[in-house]
Amino acid sequence: MQVEFFHDVICSFCFPMSYRMRKVAKKYPKLEIIHRSFALGWEKEQFIQMFGSHEAVKPEVIHHWEQANQNDDEHRFNIEGMKEKDFLFPTSKNGLKAAKAAGMSADQEAYWAVFDGLQQSLFVENKDISDLTVIEDVVKKTSIDFEAWKAQFENPETEQAVIEDLQRVEAYGIQGVPAIVVNQKYLISGVQPQEVIEQTIEQIAEEEGFQLKGLTLMGTDAAACNMIDGKWVCD
């Protein structure tokens, strides 16, 4: 059962959603989770179109952080710290490319590690995650081969892969993030409570005839020795 997790490194509601999706991944290890890009502000031009200027972004976005912090299971957002920073609110492009490069040079777990590391740097440590030095520091804290990641980050195919994700967003008609698409036909939209995410995935699995836990028996039962109530019972 394939789960596409659409998110942006600068998306405040994606921070608590990623935390919950890690619990989902642990509970249902048979899920194939694929990380997809969504750009709330690809470059500063998009910010200017939406907010009138790049400078106007941070005061507005801080209000989003307050709502997201209430939604976050551990209330991790450092809002006051961010108010004291003088850098302009980061754009999405470099962070999305960094996470995509991790996925392409390693695997989806590497993508997730860089994605979460960038979000931690922004929302808790209040760092400018569009800054390449900050991004590289995040990557170096993971188990990813840094030189392989660096080569992939600089490879034009990485940006193209992000753009293909953005095209997929349009094809699906996704309007915002976080968003979960299951088996390319079911949408879980927004930062849902943990129990809602799990109940929805279990419902979809039932409808799709997919077994989330345990093993699927192939063939027929045959004679065996089984442990029943602490005792061996052999056929």
Q: Helices and strands: which structural class?
A: alpha+beta
Order of strands, widest sheet: 2-1-3-4
CATH topology: Glutaredoxin
Q: What share of the residues lie within helices?
A: 40-55%
Strand content: 5-15%
CATH superfamily: Glutaredoxin
Overall geometry: elongated
CATH class: Alpha Beta
| Pattern of helices and strands | EHEHHHHHHHHEEHEE
Radius of gyration: 21 Å
Mean pLDDT figure: 94
Major sheet attributes: 4 strands, mixed
Low-pLDDT residue intervals, each spanning 5 or more residues: none
Q: Using DSSP, what is the number of strands?
A: 6
Total domain units: 1
The number of distinct helices, counting runs of at least 4 residues, comes to 10
Straight-line distance between termini: 35 Å
Keywords: Disulfide bond, Oxidoreductase, Redox-active center, Signal
Protein name: Thioredoxin
Domain DSBA-like thioredoxin: 2-201
InterPro entries: DSBA-like_thioredoxin_dom, Thioredoxin-like_sf
Short description:
It is built from 10 helices and 6 strands.
Description:
With about 240 residues, the protein is an alpha+beta fold. It has a single domain, classed as Glutaredoxin, CATH 3.40.30. Helix content is about 50%, strand content about 10%. The chain has 10 helices and 6 strands, in the order E-H-E-H-H-H-H-H-H-H-H-E-E-H-E-E. The protein has helices at about 15-25, 45-50, 55-70, 80-85, 95-105, 110-125, 130-140, 145-155, 155-170, 195-210, and strands at about 1-5, 30-35, 180, 185-190, 225-230, 230-235. A 4-stranded mixed sheet has the order 2-1-3-4, sandwiched between helices. The protein has a two-stranded antiparallel ribbon with strand order 5-6. Strand 3 (about 180) and strand 4 (about 185-190) form a beta hairpin. Helix 5 (about 95-105) crosses helix 8. It is elongated.
